[in-house]
Amino acid sequence: MALTQLDVNAALIVIDLQQGIVNLPVASPAAPVVEKAAAIARAFRETKRPVVLVNVDAGAPGRTDSGVPQVPQDPAFKSFVPELEQVPTDHVVTKKRWGAFQTTDLDRHLRGLNVEQIVILGIATSIGVESTARYASELGYNVVLVTDAMADLNADAHHNSITRIFPRLGETTSTAELLAKIG
């Protein structure tokens, strides 16, 4: 874990910290992830850095071995957890795929703000977080992954993403290290 620097124009991307996702049976408790995400979001807002809140309300079409993804249509499912303290300046992205870039305005929004570095955290590590990080890396963003502010449905998948995939996509860091660089 080594975050070399936090850019002045870095943006925070919070993946799927919504009621329906944080209440799923994740491999490690979701509450610490939400707490850390909320602290980081507050710090980004205080330093006038962009905050992007991402939720999911559909799955990619197509057949899979696990079946066609079903996302509940109850509006409460996609409501952000209150701990994030959403404010009007937060950019909201509702995704219909695993990653936050595909079929959304996220890249255009970030480019319009001259963002070159993105900080990603959320649930699930091996799904929404990893997919967003992969696409961001391919788009040329400097990617930072806050590994202690993530959880997954599967402990092995979480470990694989953090130890094998993320070091190839960007820099990994902890909440404490990131907060120490904000200022």
From TrEMBL:
Name by which UniProt lists this protein: Isochorismatase family protein
Highest taxon of source: Bacteria
Alphabetically ordered keywords of this record: Hydrolase
Keyword Hydrolase: yes
Domain called Isochorismatase-like: residue spans: 10-177
Record has Cell membrane as a keyword: no
GO-annotated molecular function: hydrolase activity
Cited InterPro entries: Isochorismatase-like_dom, Isochorismatase-like_hydrls, Isochorismatase-like_sf
Species for this entry: Luteibacter pinisoli
PANTHER family named in the record: ISOCHORISMATASE FAMILY PROTEIN YECD, PEROXYUREIDOACRYLATE/UREIDOACRYLATE AMIDOHYDROLASE-RELATED
